[in-house]
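Narrative of activities, Objective 1.

The group set out to show that a structural description can be obtained from nothing but a protein's sequence at a throughput compatible with the screening campaign. Below is one input-output pair from the validation batch, recorded exactly as produced.
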Amino acid sequence: MLIDSFLNALGLKKTLNSSLRYHDWISEKEKTLYESMQINTRATQKISIVVVLESVQNFEQINKTILSILEQVSPNWELLISVRNIPKELQYIEDKRVRLIQRKNEACFYISANEAAQQAQGSLLTFLKEGDQLSTYAVASLNECKDEDDSLKTIISDEDYLNSNNERCDPFFKPDWNPDYLTNYNYFSQAVAYDRKLFIDLCGFNFKVNDPYHDLALRATDLLDDGQIGHISKILFHLKQHHKGEIYRTQFDIHEPVPLVTVIIPTKDQLELLKTCLDGLFNNTNYENIEIIVIDNQSQQSETLEYLIELEINQKIRILRYDKPFNYSEMNNIAVRGAKGSLLCFLNNDISMIKKDWLTEMVSQAIRPEIGCVGAKLLYPDGTIQHAGVILGLKGYASHAHKGFEGVAKGYFNRLQVVHNVSAVTAACMVVRKEVFESVGGFDATNLKVAYNDVDLCLKVREAGYRNLFTPHAQLIHHESKSRGKKRSKEQQKQLRAESAYLLEKWGEGLFSDPAYNKNLTLLKEDFSLGFDRINK
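Output recorded for this entry:
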């Protein structure tokens, strides 16, 4: 107990526990990932690995890098070592796949890498710095990926880091191709292989920019179709230095005429919640071109009914009376049919505003032609995360990423701080173009009257070719379940089970392979912890 207290005081206990858990994951899970691999020793693809040695002072580190390549289970590689002065230790390497490139002048890593790449003969290029290491199965995995789909021009992989004791730590299990994540944060890092011709055509790294790896990734993917960018959900790269992790915010202009947004708010009594929500729309929202449709679902309290009558005086507000049992999907679909706006904002009545620019941010994202549904960062009243995008398969069906994290936290590799693509978002606060919503048939009012209708909508939108998106730059408070309560009657529980079963039946196994998540992460908790529960799945 005394040791635990000491470690907690230093903030080290969590780190140590995480490292131990990762060690267990490596021995239990990673082993199964490679057991099923068929190593193709005659693969047509050759992987060119460029190692730039800026110094030869620490040959112990250099040796670990080179050995990690010599020990590859697949023989289909070549190693190009760029060095200013060739040390005697390198002169005795007899493997003909290793070539020493002696550069004439001292040059930075990126210039040297570009020069070495010109001499590469492989179909794919990847780059290492001294101390970095490759997984024994890296070349085999890249070959397998490329052989399965020869159209791939960029392949990313998961990665981890090597501490001062050369122990693996801090794994980064990445999503599949995620354009908005890459725009705002270099999640590719160094764990990426590029088509050699593409790299040469792009003139390689631009050493004059702040982050040449990020710059290269952006320039390369800008030229490619989505299907040409692959992801291997295995840790192939063990990096000596943590990526700098710079984050960006890309803002999009809203051109005149500013589009009209129809804000749709279902409600039943709970007058104070509705008042707070509407007050936030009028007094704590700087996007002014809105109309509001309040859906009254059988309110009974006299003060609520009187207030709704008063609201109708406001030309920006219309009251839609839905005199049936609660059916979230149907009432919203009806409201959409009467919406005048080209954009729809679905908003719970238990939402309150924090910053005035929340709707401006969401609209600026939703008007992008490639974007479908846009979700916001929703906080509980205590400041912790309630919603930051939906992860498919989580807790059996779907659940909210980072739920319970501190609102100011960075999240898993900055995912709480940067805009990124997700498979689904919650309709507690969602913005989508009306044409997109209608093109996929809106909410499913027959099979999903209460639950998962927003997830189903987002999946239909994604299936139609749009990218859904989470933005942390739109922050609001969500007093979750206050309007309807958390307790469910037996009938409500029965309905929830039926709708959950329908969601699973409709989307099948795709519900458990979220491209915005990673199959090595857990489906039991919202904290992006290691997926011990998925070891044999």
